[in-house]
Amino acid sequence: MADGSAGSVLRAVLELGPAPRSAIARHASISPATLTWQSRALLAAGLLVELPETTASAGLGRPYSPLALNAAGNVVMGVHIAAEHVTVAVVDIAGTVLRSSRFPHPGTGPEGILDLAAAQVCRVRDECTERIVGLGVATGGWVDTETGTVVHHSFLGWRDVPVRDRLAAATGLPTALDNHTRALMYAEQLYGTIRAVPSSIMLFVGNVIDVAFAIHGRVHYGPRSAAGSLARWLGGTRTGPIAPAELEGLADHALLRAARDRSLGDFGDFPDLLDRAADPAVQELFRARAVTLGGVLAALIDLLDPAAVVISDRAYTRVPGVRQAYLDTVGDQAAAGIEPDRLIAGSTFQGRVLETAAAAVALHRLFDRPLAAIAV
Questions:
Q1: 244 or 255, which is more confident?
Q2: 3-class DSSP assignment, residue 239
Q3: Are the beta carbons of 139 and 150 closer than 8 angstroms?
Q4: Distance CA 199, CA 215 (A)
Q5: Cα–Cα distance between 195 and 115 in angstroms, integer?
Q6: Domains of the chain, CATH where assigned
Q7: What pLDDT shows up at residue 246?
Q8: Is the pLDDT of residue 205 over 50?
Q9: 268-299 burial, b if ≥16 CB within 10 A, otherwise e?
Q10: What Cα–Cα distance (Å) separates residue 254 from each residue in 33, 131, 251?
């Protein structure tokens, strides 16, 4: 409970920016005495700094010394394991991506991919001058956060891979693993559009498609950390593959393959497909996917009645008509009274989704229980 109060203080400073102790106590809903105790602990831990004395405005009022995040002195590292590459990033505790590198990974199974990730983390770790307070690892599919295991990743073909322990042993950093969609939900709660939102849905659309949802700010996992899969909803069966044909047809790699099969162009990779989306035929591929997934979102909205929905889809704003296809479909199919343009937003982190998702795995732990996180 004490470390939970420290987390409330740290999150309040993140949300307010440099602020007097009285404002932080009000924002965190804690007593002045608790604020004094916890702020001392956070200052001693190097997570907060005390700024020079100032006054409220124009030299009026009682002087005070604002508290601020020590973003310059504290960073996390993030590893995102995607279908075809590994991204390694350094992100400060204010959520700014400082450094990022992407590496095509070998198609040799989890051992080769994790060896590549560990080597790159160690290289960046040794070059880093800031304090590294944790390593976050994010990937798609079924991820058991408690055991640190990728239970099943359909695209990579992984089953029961102990990712967390392997990377922790190889890098010497306190390491946490989570599903990237849940991690993006945490990032939006900390730095994005759904701070203090009571309930929310996150839809991630990439080579893996899944969802996360949060109630009263708590992201739901389920007893097996299995919440969020859309495979069964989109046509999967108990005996069929985790990624059935209908779901495969909506993933990024499938849209790229469909564009090639239809001779719409000589596309090198998915970003190339996005860059050439001025072609109406290419646009239609993306809009058709948005219509299908918009129907799924409409059903989820009816089921959960969230206060906010965030869509992380690289085509959401880059491809003409895609955002509107999502909004129109949700408006047509969800319950009466839905205002899609007020309910739904694109990701705050377009262009840095993978880095932010990976870092958020560690940042969430830091802002939830900061003193425990840095004591590891």
A1: 255
A2: coil
A3: yes
A4: 5
A5: 36
A6: 2-69 (1.10.10.10), 73-185+353-375 (3.30.420.40), 196-346 (3.30.420.40)
A7: 52
A8: yes
A9: eebeebbeebeeeebbebbbbbbbbbbbbbbe
A10: 57, 41, 5
Return mean pLDDT, the chain.
Answer: 91
List, for residues 341-365, the tens digit of each pLDDT value.
999 999 999 999 999 999 999 999 9
Residue 345, pLDDT score: 97
Average pLDDT value for residue range 327-347: 93
Give CA–CA dist 202/352, Å, rounded. Answer: 16
Q: At 57, list the tokens.
A: 């405005």
First to last CA, the chain: 18
d(Cα 335, Cα 332) in Å, to the nearest integer? Answer: 8
Amino acid letter, 333: Q
d(CA 168, CA 368): 21
C-beta separation of 174 from 350 below 8 A? no
Q: Across residues 101-107, what is the average pLDDT?
A: 88
Give 176-227 as a DSSP string. EEEEHHHHHHHHHHHHSTTTT-SEEEEEEESSSEEEEEEETTEEP--TTS-T
The two tokens of residue 252 are 């990024």
Question: What sign for the dihedral angle of Cα 173, 355, 122, 70?
Answer: negative
Token pair belonging to 374: 């840095």
AA identity, residue 146: E
